[in-house]
Amino acid sequence: MDNEQPHQELVKCVVVGDTAVGKTRLICARACNKQVSLSQLLTTHVPTVWAIDQYRIYKDVLERSWEVVDGVNVSLRLWDTFGDHEKDRRFAYGRSDVVLLCFSVTSPVSLRNCKAMWYPEIRRFCPQTPVLLVGCKNDLRYMYQDEAYLSIFRENGSFLRATRKSDLVMPDQARAIARELGVHYYETSVLSYYGVNEVFENAIRSALMARRQQRFWMTNLKKVQRPLLQAPFKPPKPPVPEIHISPSSYDNHMREMWIQQAHTDVIFVAGSVGFTAHRFMLASASPLLHRILMTDFSNELNTRSSSESSMVSTFGEATQGDFNDDTEHLIRVDTGKPSRVWEQLKRRSSCQILTCDSNRRLDVSREMDHPAFLSIRVQQCEGLDHRGNPSSSLQTVITLSKLITPQAMNQVLQFMYTGTIDSQYCELQTAPIGLLLEIRQAAEFLELSDLHLFVSNVHSREEFLNTELILHYRKDLKKRFQDLCLGHGLFSDVIFQLDDGLYPVHRALLMSRCDMFKAMFSGDFRESSAKVIMFPGVAQDTFIQLLVYLYTDDISGTVSYLKCLELLEVANRLCLQRLITLIEQKVVEQLSVRCGTDGDVVEHCLRLLEPCKLHNADQLADWCMNHLCTNYNKLCKRSPKLLRQLHPENQEYLSEHRWPPVWYLKDYDYYEKCASEREKEERPLLKRSSAGCLCFSSKARRSSAHMSSTVDNSAAIATDAIDVDIEVMAEDGPGPVPVPEASNAMDM
User: Fold this and answer.
1) Furthest-apart CA pair in the chain: how many Å?
2) DSSP 8-class letter at 21
3) Looking at the predicted structure, is the pLDDT value of residue 463 above 60?
4) Which of left, alpha, beta for 456 (phi over 0: left; psi -120 to 50: alpha)?
């Protein structure tokens, strides 16, 4: 081999295995040091051979082949081989140091061939060469159900077949084959780059260990370890499903209500042109119109029925006029003859007003002391409904002065409903200056500050400011809807009878916001003309939450994950898909916050799972299923009874998609067991004490030393006692020395 350096071990690694198991991808991932994308991996397989010439041609490939393993400089040379069984590969086996026997974890046949065909061939040409069993494509063990993976196969049609669960080879099956062959087992993935470097490092260790047995005198190989254990690959945690909100159609619905003009109860007369509108809409958009429409005509009426009066609340009580001193003087009572404009308006076919009997019908009018308004009139009129049938309705007719032109009033009403005017008037280049001034004057008279500012921005060429202005107006309008229409039932024209009470609403807005209500109020149904509509199975709290969405296009602050199923059921009955997605988003946010504060939401997910599927809240059901799958062990410990109460299909799905999967848990237990056994084997023996010899143990020597020290201490004490006696006798006088006593003392 060329480019071999001194003090460097050259290792030849041969990679064998069936066709399309991932041999070439594995070699390229190690030699080129780069990952491969999923689309590249799933392209049509082209048999290739990564030859030794790559080291001579590409310098960077040669540099990456140099590696340091356990302090030994190694130059790794990789040899790719054909996957065909009938090809002759003896040229590749020659002088090989280690062989990688590869198979695919998605092909059980390739694993069986490793035992039946490849291993006997290796031993025929390389009887003493170490072999490692390598499982390639480890990522497909958990990706075979991934949507990105399956979409590639759907795009390619029938040219490729996706991996199935029955095609997978589990780690314990491959490890059993490796145990029969007496080789080490590793797994790799070029997609996640798991085990790529690890398998080649352990292949180098196997080659160096075999070389050390032959060249035991080589000192640089003494620190080489035997092949290390491979930690099992833990599949990535499934991503949390995202909640996608359906686009809002609120602005289009408000424009539709303005265009269709269904169930209107106000007529503006500007010159010879009449404009119909809804009282609740005008009162919410303009404070001035709110005060005018709240006029109390009870003093001018002698008799009237409850169904004829528009100034009577939904529950039958007269509404109280909330006029202050600034607006009371604008209205003057006039019970005289109708004005000429009103007579002309009744004759116009566009209004579809029939003759009415003044003796039997309500006919009250007042003159107004205001530059923009001449009079206000309330009269019971007969006309034609949306189906062409005669109908009677109470209309409030407001006659405008000449200061407000019909063109300006049309744009004013459009702004009240939609928050904008015609596009041709939104830019100074296309808008007539005179009409812009008329619109601004009408907005000033009607106390529409947002419209006045809107036109002023157009006139001063600052149209870019109107975008934020429109959003601000619509936000304020929704807030006034919630305060006036929902909170007080202002100018409601129909009542819903619920399980626990009555609630007033507005037909026109419900028709524009919900197709089910539109069919109910405009079709040949009893509810189209009824004043009270039965709505069984719905509580008042749930109905209020529904109305908050219909009036404001929002549900913030009204939905809780503890009480969301009732609203989901109603939203599904009325086919309100956006409301369902808003509920899903709100519930997921609340559950996520509870999870973040170490709260347990497993039981809540179990409670929501199947009802959400029943009410077509699929996104919330997927989120709950994902949470249960990723917390399957906790689910089995804490709520086994609730788990058994689920539908068998849901139980099967949870068991199949649990995380971590069962095969990983088994593989991890086996890894810990092997790691503990290897730790015991490699634990160094206790060093023998330096004192002592082969004949005596250190314990015996310690006991003998202790006995000798005790005898020495006793002898020293006896000697001291003899010296003391001799000194005492010398002081008393001469005498014989008590030798026997001294002897007795020494014996003691």
Assistant:
1) 169
2) S
3) yes
4) alpha
Identify the CATH number of the domain in which residue 189 sits: 3.40.50.300
9-17 vs 72-80, strand pairing mode: parallel
Q: Which of 611, 627, 657 delimits the end of a domain?
A: 657
Between CA 597 and CA 604, with CA 601 as vertex, the angle to 5 degrees is 145
Q: How far is CA 17 from CA 52, 116, 134, 136, in A?
A: 18, 12, 10, 10
Do 75 and 34 sit in the same domain of this protein?
yes
Residue 315 has pLDDT above 90, yes or no: no
Distance CA 125, CA 253 (A): 80
Residue with the two structure tokens 């690890």: 198
User: From residue 53, how far is each of 27, 49, 77, 249, 284 by CA, in Å?
Assistant: 14, 11, 10, 65, 82
- Residues 6 or more apart in contact with residue 316 via CB below 8 angstroms: 306
Distance CA 563, CA 557 (A): 12
DSSP assigned state of 453:
H
Q: Which amino acid is at 94?
A: G
Return the top range by mean pLDDT from 2-6, 38-42, 573-577: 573-577
**109 within some domain:** yes
Degrees, nearest 5: CA angle 472-473-476: 85
Specify whether 27 is located in the same domain as 134. Answer: yes
Give residue-wise pLDDT tens across range 399-454: 999 999 999 999 999 999 999 998 888 877 777 888 889 999 999 999 999 999 99
Count of CB atoms within 10 A of residue 675's CB? 13
Q: What is the structure's pLDDT at 690?
A: 46
Q: How many structural domains comprise the chain?
A: 3
Task: State the pairing for strand pair 331-333/273-277.
Answer: unpaired
Task: Quickly state the pLDDT bin for 86 (edges 50, 70, 90).
Answer: confident
Domain presence at residue 680: no
Q: Is residue 319 pLDDT above 50, yes or no?
A: no
| Residue 717 confidence class, pLDDT cut points 50, 70, 90 | very low
DSSP assignment of 482-502, as one string? IIIIITS-TT--EEEEETTEE
Domain that includes residue 452, residue range: 264-296+362-487
Beta bridge partners of 103: 135
* Arithmetic mean of pLDDT, 258-278: 91
Phi-psi map region of 445: left, alpha, beta (phi>0 left; psi -120 to 50 alpha): alpha
The two tokens of residue 709 are: 């020290």
CATH number at residue 427: 3.30.710.10
343-354 as b/e, with b when 16 or more CB fall inside 10 Å? eebbeeeebebe
What would the pLDDT profile of 349-377 be if each residue is shown by its tens digit? 333 333 333 333 467 888 888 999 999 98
**Considering the chain, what percentage of its residues have pLDDT values greater than 90?**
54
Cα–Cα dist 75/69, whole Å: 10
What are 712's two structure tokens? Answer: 């020495």
Distances (CA, A) of 485 to 143, 418, 448: 53, 18, 19
Tell me, what's the pLDDT at 55?
A: 64
Model confidence, pTM: 0.76
Element (H, E) at 464: none
What residues pair up with 250 in beta bridges, in sequence order? none
Instruction: Name the token pair of 460.
Output: 């001063």
Average pLDDT over residues 583-593: 94
116: DSSP letter: I
